[in-house]
UniProtKB/TrEMBL annotation, chain A:
Pfam families in the cross-refs: BPD_transp_2
Keyword Transmembrane: yes
Record protein name field: Simple sugar transport system permease protein
Record's subcellular location: Cell membrane
PANTHER family in alphabetical order: ABC TRANSPORTER PERMEASE PROTEIN YPHD-RELATED (PTHR32196:SF21), ABC TRANSPORTER PERMEASE PROTEIN YPHD-RELATED-RELATED (PTHR32196)
Ranges that cross the membrane: 20-41, 53-72, 107-136, 178-201, 230-254, 260-277, 289-308, 314-334
Alphabetical keyword list: Cell inner membrane, Cell membrane, Membrane, Sugar transport, Transmembrane, Transmembrane helix, Transport
Chief place of localization: membrane
The organism of origin for this protein: Amaricoccus macauensis
TrEMBL record, chain B:
InterPro entries per UniProt: ABC_transp_permease (IPR001851)
Subcellular location: Cell membrane
Alphabetical UniProt keywords: Cell inner membrane, Cell membrane, Membrane, Sugar transport, Transmembrane, Transmembrane helix, Transport
Chain segments annotated as coiled-coil in the UniProt record: none
CDD domains hit by this protein: TM_PBP1_transp_AraH_like
A GO cellular-component term linked to this record: plasma membrane
Name this polypeptide is given: Simple sugar transport system permease protein
Length: 341, 340
């Protein structure tokens, strides 16, 4: 009897985990933080906070999504920020080179379209090459992407001499900074990308193959899955997400540079692990990542309005991650004991 | 005799060090022909001094990599230890031995904190050290306000020369403190890892922790040793860096993580643990050093250097993995393992 109820409990637990809001611990943490800041900071729960939240989250959010896909297969993509910056640089360069000052609006839109396609193609090319290197050489993804990061950053810095390129044409920057019903377009971009990736990772053969590779790549290969092709797909998907992040860069900075957002690289790994993604691969959900991102952003906004330095924010992010992992470890040890009582 | 020579060659063929040495010789020959002043004693000594700090920290990182872990936080550790020591020396005016011991203690403590997170709380090493890096470096920037310390005492910034000679060309060659410390650290690490039981246990743990535990290795102690050793060497590197530049800048060491990691990995240290040698790591640093220096002397833009590093990492790691994969298929019993 006890055995049966245990199994029911496990089934129930799995059912809750499957729901988008199944991360009870993280949701509780988010609620507690919101409550804490609402009490400590007057005017924290306001439209202004919500707006800044929606404008600041997309960049880190899209980059974290780009990191989660390889993480799920037990890899890493250290080149995401380099990819994003090079893509943004290419797009800005095309737009400011080929748009004449007196061009008609149709010509401007044509060049913008060409720039977007070129940026997307660049990201796909980088993704395919990275994926092929990971899949066909068998070198650890950390090393491959360390090499590609250095290479891509090197090319960007060599070509721009480290300078920022500005000159995003008015139609594009206006579109990227537009909002729909009070919600910024770039935030909708993040939501759309998250939903799409969530569906791809959870409900397609490709997504299931990713999780299987993360659990055991040899077993996956023996179950007649072409792991190499899946890995190429993983890094391509990650790079294409970087293209979306490049759009956010163009919208928020109105320019592109080789060293924008470099400090986000390790934060994306923190966000993913905080969201319950197993760094060894195999387990993790996009919904968990989104809650983790919300937690990080709430901490950042709250401390900011509290008047604390941004340096302290990063320290508290790191501390939050360690605390959450400790809580998970303790829970795994203590929960069975309590249940037995 | 020819048979023995050929088996010795077969044994060496699978060692990444040999390939690295070959590449270094080829690159070195190209530069010594094309770049004037590359193969001169002053240039080589200069290179040694420039890369000494990186080499010292790479030795510590190598031990952690062999144990099967990874540490991203060493640059932050080095900065914190350097700044704490600089504060004690410049503001409190403490004497040299106290300051040095305090700096090394800070490094060891931060390393042990990493080890505690990894061993007791079972946090993956890369996650634990990324978090610790964010915490320690952000706190350093918060409390220091990003202000550099320029008034380091004389004993810290005076150049220490062990051997000085004047060449016929009139150039002066000095063997300075960083070079001597680097040589000592490399020698100590080599002895620890190949001639002492703790080093052999770390190799065993990196190869298979469970097997090592059953043989009787104390995994917890070894973890503390590996990360603590890296912490001490990072602190030493940080203080030497301040010695070389004559000031303590809180963010001078950031973003060196990936460069040091590349050097260690180029030299054959595996991210899966259990493999790598001290000479290999040193060769990795030598390769990066002569590439940068040679390209500089050739007048190639320094912006180009990062492209070269990227290509070097991609090519060398691919060759190493592919050649070892071929080796595994024809592995001969009784062959010496690649970690001697």
């Amino acid at each position: 009897m006890a055995d049966l109820s245990d199994r029911e409990g496990a089934g129930l637990l799995r059912f809750f985990r499957g729901l988008p809001g199944g991360h009870l611990g993280l949701l509780a943490l988010l609620a507690a933080l919101l409550l804490l800041f609402a009490v400590l900071v007057p005017g924290f729960l306001s439209q202004g906070t919500l707006n800044s939240f929606m404008y600041q989250l997309p960049l880190l959010g899209l980059l974290s999504l780009a990191m989660v896909v390889p993480l799920l297969t037990g890899g890493l993509n250290l080149a995401i920020i380099a990819t994003m910056n090079q893509c943004a640089l290419l797009m800005v360069w095309i737009m400011r080179t080929f748009i004449a000052p007196d061009a008609s609006s149709a010509a401007v839109i044509g060049v913008i379209a060409i720039a977007l396609v070129a940026g997307l193609l660049l990201c796909i090319a980088i993704g395919v090459v990275t994926g092929a290197l990971v899949a066909y050489t068998g070198v650890h993804p950390i090393l491959v992407t360390l090499g590609t990061k250095s290479l891509i950053d090197g090319i960007s810095i060599y070509l721009t001499r480290g300078m920022a390129l500005s000159g995003v044409p008015e139609p594009l920057s206006a579109t990227l900074n537009a909002s729909v019903l009070g919600v910024p377009l770039i935030f909708l971009l993040l939501v759309g990308a998250a939903i799409a990736l969530g569906i791809v990772l959870k409900h397609t053969p490709f997504g299931i193959a990713c999780a299987m590779i993360g659990s055991n790549i040899e077993a996956t290969r023996y179950s007649a899955i072409d792991t190499r092709r899946v890995l190429v797909g993983v890094y391509t998907l990650s790079s294409v997400t970087c293209f979306l992040a490049a759009l956010v860069i163009l919208g928020t900075f109105n320019s592109a540079s080789a060293d924008y957002a470099q400090s986000y690289l390790l934060v994306t790994i923190l966000a993913a692990v905080l969201g319950g993604v197993d760094p060894f691969g195999g387990f993790g959900t996009v919904s968990g990542l989104m809650i983790a991102l919300a937690i990080l952003q709430v901490i950042s906004s709250g401390l900011n309005q509290f008047g604390l330095s941004t340096y302290l924010t990063v320290a508290i992010w790191g501390g939050t991650l360690i605390a959450v992992v400790v809580a998970q470890t303790l829970w795994a040890v203590l929960a069975p004991r309590w249940r037995r009582k | 005799m020819p048979e023995r020579a050929s088996s010795a060659f077969a044994r060496w063929r699978r060692r990444p060090e040999l390939w690295l040495l070959l590449v270094i010789l080829i690159v070195g020959t190209i530069f010594s022909v094309t770049a004037r002043g590359f193969l001169t004693l002053p240039n080589i000594i200069d290179l040694l001094e420039t890369y000494s700090v990186q080499a010292i920290i790479a030795m510590g990182l190598f031990v952690v990599l062999v144990s099967g872990g990874i540490d991203i936080s060493f640059a932050a550790t080095a900065s914190v230890a350097q700044y704490c020591a600089a504060l004690l020396a410049a503001r409190a005016g403490l004497p040299a031995p106290v300051v040095i011991v305090a700096g090394l203690t800070v490094g060891a403590a931060l390393g042990c904190l990493n080890a505690a997170l990894i061993h007791y709380l079972r946090i993956t090493s890369i996650i634990a050290t990324i978090s610790m890096m964010s915490i320690t470096f952000s706190l350093l920037m918060y409390f220091s306000g990003g202000r550099s310390i320029y008034d380091l005492p004389d004993w810290w910034t005076t150049r220490v020369t062990f051997y000085r000679t004047e060449l016929e060309s009139g150039d002066i060659v000095r063997i300075t403190l960083p070079i001597v410390v680097m040589a000592a650290v490399a020698l100590i690490t080599w002895v620890l890892m190949t001639r002492a039981s703790v080093g052999r246990q770390i190799y065993a743990m990196g190869g298979n922790p469970e097997a090592a535990r059953r043989v009787g290795a104390k995994i917890g102690l070894l973890t503390f040793f590996a990360y603590g050793y890296l912490g001490v060497l990072a602190a030493l590197g940080g203080m030497l860096q301040a010695h070389r530049v004559g000031e303590s800048v809180p963010n001078a060491m950031v973003n060196t993580e990936l460069a040091v990691l590349s050097a260690a990995v180029l030299g054959g240290a595996s991210l899966n643990g259990g493999a790598g040698t001290v000479p290999g790591v040193l060769l990795g640093i030598v390769l990066l050093a002569i590439l940068q220096n040679g390209l500089n002397l050739l007048g190639v833009s320094s912006y180009f250097f990062q492209i070269v590093i990227g290509i070097t990492i991609l090519v060398s790691t691919s060759i190493t993995v592919i050649s070892s994969r071929r080796g595994r298929r024809h592995r001969i019993l009784g062959e010496e393992p690649a970690n001697g």
